[in-house]
Amino acid sequence: MDKKFEFMKRVYGLAGKFKQVIVVTVDNVTSSQIQNIRRIVYRGGGTLIVGKNTIIKKAIQLRSTTGDLPEEFKKFRELGAPIPELASLLPLIKQKVGLIFTDESVFELKPKIEANKIQAAAKLGAIAPIDVVIPPGSTGMDPSQIAFFHALSISTKIDKGMIAIIKDYQVCFAGKKIGSSQVALLQKMGVKPFYYGMIVLACYDEGTILDQTVLSVNTDALVTRFQTGVKNVAAISLALGIPTQVSVPHSIVSAFKNLAAIGLTINYKFSQIANAGSAPAGGKAPAAPAKTEAAKPAAPVKEVPKAPEPEEDNMDMGDLFG
């Protein structure tokens, strides 16, 4: 009873210490995997709790209760005031789950948690997490075992002295229990089809529950889509001439460019373009081009006066034919 009481007390204290409570599955997760993830969470300042659901639920109920606590739990109030919003966590604490108390963003922590997986064989009675299909090809088994395949209605043939499957055969269906014949077939084939690890189910974030639909969104892709949407709205606003919050900055920049172009054209400079065309601040003025022999001005050529053109003789011949 003392261990249960201390564990409950610990969960009660953690529930109000961190902003987020992440609910993860621990079904088919090995103790070494739990220790690895516990270290990952600890490096971010958080804590991973795995225990009996009844005890964890009781601690959450005590922390979310606003009224008086039972006599044996009244000292829990010394660890913090009630948080009614925590009651939204209770429906999520079912089956085999653990709780991660952390202030680290769930979107950053989720890929680290779910990357810690190990390959495993199918187990009798377990729920298949994915569909499992055996493709056509040789099984590596001799013809003496063909009756086993016939019992499962698997189309086969003998190829080079070995049993070969003719077409795809679906062994397991996602979300359904795995039967003994399915386990036996996968064992015979030497197939370990599953990868087990913790899966983030939901996250309590300061009163809000984020489900898997929200948590599976890629934040980078979300930002890219948002930026594309903003660009589209700005383009439409500019095309229609309707000012909006995203189009006004573009309109201001465009108007300034027009004013600057007009000012430079008519040689009228205002403060924003006063230094247009001049050397940048702190920079040196461009050096004058070096003078070369070809660049020297040619010596002035003295103009030679033209010789006067001879005047025509104005000879008076008199009245020769008078």
Structure description:
The protein has 322 residues and is an alpha+beta fold. The protein folds into three domains: 2-117 and 197-216, Alpha-Beta Plaits; 132-194, Ribosomal protein L10, N-terminal fragment, domain II (Molybdopterin biosynthesis moea protein, domain 2); 220-267, no CATH class. The chain is 34% helix and 15% strand. It contains nine helices and twelve strands. It has helices at residues 2-17, 31-43, 53-64, 106-114, 146-151, 180-189, 212-215, 219-240, 248-265; strands at 20-25, 47-49, 97-102, 118-120, 132-134, 137-138, 156-159, 162-165, 169-172, 194-196, 200-205, 208-211. The strands form four sheets. A five-stranded antiparallel beta sheet has the order 2-3-1-11-12, with helices on both faces. A three-stranded antiparallel beta sheet has the order 6-8-7. A two-stranded antiparallel ribbon has the order 4-10. α1 crosses α3 (53-64). The protein starts with a helix and ends in a 57-residue tail after the last helix.
Q: What is the overall pLDDT average?
A: 83
Largest sheet: 5 strands, antiparallel
Helix content: 25-40%
- The total domain count is 3
CATH topology of the largest domain: Alpha-Beta Plaits
Distance between the termini: 166 Å
Number of strands: 12
What is the CATH domain class of the largest domain? Alpha Beta
